[in-house]
Amino acid sequence: MATVKIPPVLRPSVGGEKEVQATGADVAAVLSSLAEDHPDTRSQLFSGEGELNRYVNVYLNDEDVRVLDGLETSVSETDTLVILPAMAGGSAPA
Amino acid sequence: MSPTGAEVIRKIRSEVEEVDPSEVRDHLGNGVVLVDVRESEEWDAGHIPGAKHVPRGYLESRIEGAAPGRGDRVVLYCASGQRSALAAHTLAEQLGYENVASMTGGITLWKDRGYQVETPRSLTKEQRERYSRHLLVPEIGLEGQTKLLEAKVLLLGAGGLGSPTALYLAAAGVGTLGIVDDDEVDLSNLQRQVIHTTDRIGTPKVDSAEEAIEAINPDVEVVKYRTRLDASNIMDIIPGYDVIVDGVDNFPTRYLLNDATVRLQLPVVSASILGFDGQLSVFKPYDGPCYRCLYPVPPPAELAPSCGANGVLGVLPGTMGLLQATEVIKLITGAGEPLIGRLLLYEALGATFTELKVRRDPECEICSRPPEDISDEELGVFPDYEAFCAAAG
Predict the structure, then answer these.
(1) Residues B106 and B166 both lie in one domain
(2) Which domains does chain A carry?
């Protein structure tokens, strides 16, 4: 099973875990399996049409899947997927 | 009988190729590596423009940093041509450099000819002492410290990230620190905003920060902007700065800043924090990706915890702010490899760092176009986030 790193905003949807295991031969399958195990993540990852939301970046190990084969990028057992939405926390408003 | 020192030197000089200063001047910049082998004080008093400094005592250990290839054309000089001849002999005979020469007459003859000499900005005695630990590291040295003293850095916010960044950049001798913040010091800030103090609660943050910076380092000029950065003032505030440090807490300002800095081609050292997690990257327009390449669209309000107050480990903005300060110093001095095209994630509870690659997006709405094509109206185009946050409650 591949490892999926969960960003802070999604952790409440996976029981507070920082990373979870998920099965699948490609990125789409791994994310679908994640959404099946943790249904609250589905609406945050996928649009109504089943596309990956544009504001969610997904990395296979250290590479953005957009420059690989997108959702069809192959995933092996030893790979790590990183889900990364933007964060804006910082200083007081400037 | 052993030969005298003078005899040894004469013999070595007869074996080394020597070139006249006029020849060196004519060939400067044509792939010739010119190396000054004198001591640091002599170098600081003036050297040939374009030369690299490798003191003779460090010749064997540092020459490869200046002239990596054994076949490189290397010309050495010193004060009079004697030490450089000995050094040239070492390079040829012991290190295998094939094309080495020594400049006749050294910099003394060079100057007599009226050729150009570059004198680095000198530091006062107090500055030499204050920055002595910088001067001792070759990656900074006098040249880097001079760049720091001449640099202008703008900090967006004197809050969690801005506090440690400002303190360390001030200590490092960054000559001008601009600070944009419209807020006042609050008791709940002090758990992490270490530039402020309990007795300055209620004071404007820009004033409180200025007081702390001046107490650390009177070399630093503080420029205060007691305002919020927005589309109406950004083009008045940010031009003229060398590096922008972004630690703002909201998406609209991040996109606005990105668009304006791409247009002005200013590097941004960007960090964000939430809970125990931090992100850091350097956006250097046209050298690497911009913020919109990384995040083409912002998340919806329910996934963007910038809408209200959130918890954060007080130390975390310290960690991330100091990584920002480090990147700022690298950009100014040219030392090391800045975090361009890379995103660093820090997770404090697990004590893990993760590095991700960030690519330029050839279809980026902003940085795929020439800077002059980015209009005022396009800066910070963004969904109405205030309304969005209000709707999300």
Answers:
(1) no
(2) 2-85 (3.10.20.30)
Contact state of B271 with A8 under an 8 Å Cβ cutoff: no
User: Does some domain include residue B130?
Assistant: no
User: Is A88 within 8 Å of B347 when comparing Cβ atoms?
Assistant: no
Chain A residue with minimal CA distance to B180? A94
From B154, which residue of chain A is nearest by alpha-carbon distance?
A94
Last residue of a domain, one of B91, B112, B133: B112
Give residue B320's pLDDT band: very low, low, confident or very high (50, 70, 90): very high
Supply B259's token pair.
């668009």
Q: Which of residues 128-167 of B touch A (CB under 8 A)?
A: 156-163
- Whether residue B238 is predicted with pLDDT greater than 70 in this model: the reply is yes
DSSP string covering B60-114? HHHHHHH---TTSEEEEE-SSSHHHHHHHHHHHHTS--SEEEEETTHHHHHHHTT
Tell me the nearest-neighbour CA distance from A53 into chain B, angstroms. Answer: 9
Is there a contact between A90 and B159 if contact means CB atoms under 8 Å apart?
yes
The parent domain of residue B28 ranges over 5-112
Whether B42 and B188 map to the same domain: the answer is no
Is residue B38 in some structural domain? yes
Give how many domains chain B has, as a whole number: 2
Nearest residue of B to residue A83 by CA position? B356
pLDDT tens sequence across B265-275: 999 999 999 88
Q: Is B234 at the interface with chain A, CB within 8 A?
A: no
pLDDT confidence of residue A48: 82
Task: Quote the CA–CA distance of A35 and B187 in Å, as a whole number.
Answer: 42
Q: Do B96 and B233 fall into the same domain?
A: no
Within a domain: residue B118? no
Handedness of CA B52, B54, B59, B61 (dihedral sign): negative
